[in-house]
Structures are given as C-alpha cells and as structure tokens.
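Listing S7. Sequence submitted for prediction.
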Amino acid sequence: MGAGGRMNVAADDKPLAHKRVPVSKPPFELSDLKKAIPPHCWERSLVRSFAAVFRDFIIIGALYYLADTFIPMLPKPLAYVAWPVYWFFQGAYLMGLWVIGHECGHHGFSDYPWLNDTIGFIVHSLILTPYFGFKYSHRTHHANTNSIEYDEVWIPKRKSDKLYSEILNNPTGAFLVFVFKIVLGFPLYFVFNLYGRKYEKGITSHFYPYSPIFNDSERFQIFLTDLGVFATCYAVYRAAAIMGTQWVINIYGMPILFMSGFFILLTYLHHTHPAIPHYDSTEWDWLRGALATVDRNFGFLNHAFHDVTRTHTVHHLFPTIPHYNTFEAREAVKPILGEYYKYDDTPILEAVWRETKDCIFIEPDVVDGEKKGIYWFHK
C-alpha cells in the first residue's frame, strides 16, 4: 500500500512540499472556478451512478464467495494468511460503497433527492454508518471547513492540551494515537463525536435525534437512521446464531473493521498536513477554508475508493459533482488554483506516520508580537 502510493498519478501532479500554502485572499472567485469546469461535469447520470453501485456489490459478492468457499478448504497456515488478505480487500471495497453513500448525501448520485436518500440510507445502513446523521454533520463540515470554532470533524488539538502536546508528543505516543484512530476512530466518531466539534450542551452523537448537531426538522430522520443500523445489527446477530460467531467475524466483522480504518485514513489525510492552515473567526472565510484540503494518491486502492482520494479539493469546492466527473473538473481548475491547490504524493503509510507525529497541535502565527487568526500544525 505504501509503495503503491505512487501509482496512477497524472503527469502534471507534483508532490506537495512542507512549504506553507498561501493564506492571502485568492486572486480568483468561486465563480471563476465554476466557469472553467466543462458543463457536462455537472451532469449526474443514473446509468453511471448505478453502475458504480453494482460494481461494488459485484466485487463484494465475489470476494465473499471466494472467501466463504475456498478459505475453509485451505491448510490452517495458509488460511491464516488468506483471511487477512480477504479482510483488506473486502474492507477496501466496502469503503467504496461508503463513498457512494457519501455522494448520495451530497445529492451527487442523481437529480432526484428521494432516490439519493434511499440509496444512501440503504448502503450506509449495511455498513453501520448513520446515513442521515452523517449527512447533516457533514453538511456543516463543508460549510465551515478548517474553522477551528465551527468545523465538524478533525478539530485540531491546541498546545494547552497537555495530553497531546507533552505526554503523547513522542514516537511511542504517536504510534499509540495512530493505532487508536485506525481501530476505534470510526465508531467513536459516530457514537461520541470523537474528533468532532465540541458543543456546550447536550449529548453529541450521530445516533441521538436530540443531539445539538441536528435541528428540529432533522430529528425524525436520525431516528430512521438508528432503525437502519439496528436492522443491520440484528441481521448480523441472526447470522451469528445460525452460522456461528467466528463465521460472522471473518466474513463481515473484520472487513467492517478494515473499512473503518480506511475511513479514518482517507478523512484524516485529506484534512491533516503540515502545510495547510486552520483559521479562527477573525480570519476564516469559506473559500480559503475549502481550499485548505489535500489531495492524496492511494495507488491501487484509488480504484476501490472510486478515485475520490485524488479529487478532494474540487469536491470541497463543488460537492454535487459526481465522483466520475471530479477528475476532469480537477484538471480544469488546477491552472486557476495554482499554489492554492495542494497535492501530496507521499506513500500513504509514510504520510500517515509523518502526519501523526508532526501534526500534534496547532498554534497561531505571531506577527509583531501579536497572535493572528491563522493556525499551523506543530509537534
């Protein structure tokens, strides 16, 4: 995976150095970027969108069939190798299915909101993701990207948090933080809003209808989300009763764990880098916040993830563009973005280790003895 991080890179993609990106007001407007994108990139095709869904289900089904049929026939030493291989690839393509649900939440799947929500609700429920809860918190994330007060996810720690700035600010601490994120970050984010925005009142959870994340008009849909995830959990329970717990762990549980790790890996690396800033309310504006993201290259896993790994910046600028058109849209706006476009081709395992140990907390720039509202990662 790490070495594969340099595959499938467009010829003009350049690695992003640690040099800080521009934080001045961009010399272009959002409308300039929109005009540069070919009109057909905005078109949502039911054929192409459903083809992506069917692709994922076909590959997931084929991997399940191969694992369930042939791995039990292998000698135990080989089976101990084959199961992790299955978990890895099944988890990757489950993450691809998760990407489709995410696109439904942005209404990038089709022109029909009811169809977007139906498909998104089904696929996310099957992989234990609260569709409507995530849809609404993610909407806030897109509206407040890299605002240290109002963003909804991957809120950086401050130097005053001694646990991170002192106790865990070493290679051992960084490794423990990395393992914790990959293994438990997914469920803890959705259940307890770990890594999310801190609210003064209320229980903050993507599963709680009365969470301050949501407004009154959204609470019933959060209840439906809970029913969808509960239905999947009950189906898993029944499968364990019939097929055995070990079978369920091997076929479903471990792939979900790997998918959870990929979710953390993608979202963390798109929003964490030594060269990108965060802003407080004195400096933040929507365009600079949306531009403060990083495109990454996951090598052969780009295919599993529908190539959203390399187009995250344009996704933040125009989230309704369907995934199969974002690469073309990215290429169209890159000449305008110039230094404001951020791409890092560092192999993924190397990148996540670097970001985990180097991006410990944020502190503001100090100009003429005064702290400004632009914050950078430190270790």
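Caption to Listing S7: primary sequence and predicted structure tokens for the chain studied. The first helix runs from residue 30 to 36. Confidence is low (pLDDT under 50) at residues 1-16.
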